[in-house]
Amino acid sequence: MSRAFIKKIIRRLVWKATKKSVMQVLTPRCKRDGEPEYGRFTPSDIERIIQQANLNVEELLPYLQNLDNIGNYLNVYVSLVDLAIYRTLVREGLSPSYAINLTGDINWQLGVNTSGYFQLKKNLMALKTGEPKDLTGKFLEDMLKFPFGEPGYQVDFYQDNNTYYMNIYSCPVFDFYKQFGKEEMTVCRKVFCTYDYAVAERIGERCRYERKHTLSDGDEVCDMRWSILDTPLT
Predict the structure, then answer these.
(1) Of 59, 133, 171, 204, which has the maximum CB count within 10 A?
(2) Percentage of residues of the chain with pLDDT beyond 90
(3) Taking a C-beta distance cutoff of 8 angstroms, is the pair 129, 135 a contact?
(4) Dist. CA 20–CA 17, nearest whole Å
(5) What mean pLDDT value characterizes the chain?
(6) Whole-angstrom Cα distance, residue 5 to residue 118?
(7) What per-residue confidence (pLDDT) applies to 107?
(8) CA separation, residue 140 to residues 31, 54, 199 (Å)
(9) Domain count of the chain?
């Protein structure tokens, strides 16, 4: 099976799952943040948004790098779809801040809807170790193979006591967004780059994620810290 064919399948599956996520997120939401007097998204609104987002995806595809690593390609394509949705929502008249919030919610809902693969891996790892620190380490190491593998991601990963240090110096999603302007980079930072905070909670109730620097904020590194606490987060 060729890489080109696999990438085509990825695009189809991601878009199918994204359409479902858009419907789930927008259906109960107001057209203006916290202002129900302006109405909520109707089925026809949502269908129009999906159709326009699909057109935006096609316009953005020429900017998608020809990445050999399938995991790298998956991440960048998902982030491309994020940008397509954001641009659609702004075109609908939403404020940029509200459009970013909704895009982030759609991105997270997509992750929830497609989390079966990673949940299965986590469950299989848990059969070998029930220790939260070891389970977190194995999960992160596996993530560095797929989808955060080389050559797109250049990562320094190590452990010190109850904390795993993950310093990312190269990121294909960041490289994709560098082709655009400040507004698009803000979408990257506030949608894709904040995803990990909630991921930590999904890894385990005692896992805390911290980061002081981010490539999308102009820094030289994403200095991710995954710590295992003595007691669960409240």
Answers:
(1) 171
(2) 77
(3) yes
(4) 5
(5) 93
(6) 23
(7) 96
(8) 38, 32, 11
(9) 2
The amino acid at residue 112 is: V
For 50-99, write each residue's pLDDT tens digit. 999 999 999 999 999 889 999 999 999 999 999 999 999 999 999 999 99
Mean pLDDT of 205-211: 89
Domain co-membership, 173 together with 80 = no
pTM of the model: 0.93
CB atoms inside a 10 Å sphere around CB 233: 11
Quote the CA–CA distance of 90 and 173 in Å, as a whole number: 21
Between CA 227 and CA 221 the distance in angstroms is 18
**Cα–Cα distance for residue pair 225/211, rounded to 1 Å:** 6
- State whether 140 and 89 are in the same domain: no
Range of the domain at 32: 3-113
pLDDT in tens, 157-207: 999 999 999 999 999 999 999 999 999 999 999 999 999 898 888 877 788
Which among 91, 113, 135 is the end of a domain? 113
Residues 107 and 142 in one domain: no
Q: How confident is the model at residue 124, as a pLDDT?
A: 73
